Amino acid sequence: MAEVAELKARLNQSSTNSSKPPSSDPPQVKLAPPKAPSGKRRGGQPGHPKAERTLLPPDEIRTLKPSVCRDCSRSLAGDDPAPAIHQVHELPVIKPHVTEYRCHRLRCPHCGTTTVPAVPSEARTGYGPRAQAVAALLTGSCRLGKRGTSQLFDDLFGLPLSPAMVCKLQHRTAEALKPVAEQALVYTRGHPANVDETGWKQGRQRAWLWAAVTTFVVAFLIRRTRGRAAFDDLRAGSTAVHTTDRYPVYTHLDKYKRQLCWAHLRRDFQAMIDRGGSGQAIGAALLACSDALFENWYRVRDGTLARSTCRSTYIPALRRQVGTHLRNGAACGCAKTATTCAELLSVEASLWTFARVVGVEPTNNAAEREVRHAVCWRKTSFGTDSERGSRFVERILTVIASCRRQKRNVLAFLIDAVTAHRTGAKAPTLVPAEAQQQNVVNPLLANC
Known about the structure:
Organism: Gemmata obscuriglobus
Radius of gyration: 29 Å
Domain DUF6444: 2-53
Protein name: IS66-like element ISGob4 family transposase
Strand order of the largest sheet: 5-4-3-6-7
Order of helices and strands: HEEHHHHEEEHEEHHHHHHHHH
Distance between the termini: 49 Å
Domain Transposase IS66 central: 148-390
Largest sheet: 5 strands, mixed
Shape: globular
Strand content: 5-15%
Number of strands: 7
Pfam families: DDE_Tnp_IS66, DUF6444
């Protein structure tokens, strides 16, 4: 009977009670119940911030004035001190700027030796820093394939660029971003981070994409293993808080420097309910506790509940309730539920790190969101073919995610990095300045 129950539980696994993605759910899985109608009309609600087009500095101004009054037809003159402005935004016709180097081979009339001038480094690459940066942006941020990027260069820029050259430009960009990514990785090791990993493919072999997400900087790595060695490459020597799921590779972390993701725990609690038996009531009670936790945490984030009040009033009572339910679950007759509850009891302190440490959230959602872009890219590109390709992916993802978090222009950063690599200048950095680290607050944690 136990074996039958185990097989049934495995058969009933879905994205609601396990780590399986929603795309793998069978048709019989029940969808989340629809939210009750609010009674409000669709669209923007009264009082919401008005969204208007951004006015840009004009290149051409055309003045429009009425000549006669629309009522009495008398002549009008003068100027309106605050005229109404209507702008028309248009894109210019893009034409490649081509610099042609003509190398003259001259023969010496005295000794007969032919001398050829040195070719500048820019002439050897064949494409300028902006063209190289745009190719990297289209493939890394817009997830275009090599042929799609080649076609877009021809259609939009009038610049012939073969798929093979797109690949070469990617490799050159990866070399330019090497010091940038290495510095970003070192920075993330010194700060609390949400850590996650997802499947990848390199050549015909399995690989994993790892991510460490801090407030301002995100670091990605692709490794052929999902084990401790890959985690050490990502977070070697870090003593900061790690927010993770319950994957066993994280069990070596200090339970007081680790935050377990409550979003993942909710799926574990739902699994207890779906298995039925003596663990069903335990799962329902734990799920109710998680609902209460998130309700209070959302109030903290919104500023309607002081963090100190939440920590001193709500968290202690909630922690006692969860501890009681876990101890009851560890002694229940359902083997899987008992095992899960016993494991959570052994790292019980890791459930509440977010209440002790400012800046730590109770979920790993930040890492899940950053990994999402890479997952979509993997599904259309089927991974990478080589180590060089993997280095480009992890470095361009590091730049894109970090620039987005710092509200920096990704293309401008890439152009600076490529230019610095070609000229031997110091590479730009993703690490925020000291003043920025001290004065800029993560908007998600502003009230925590």
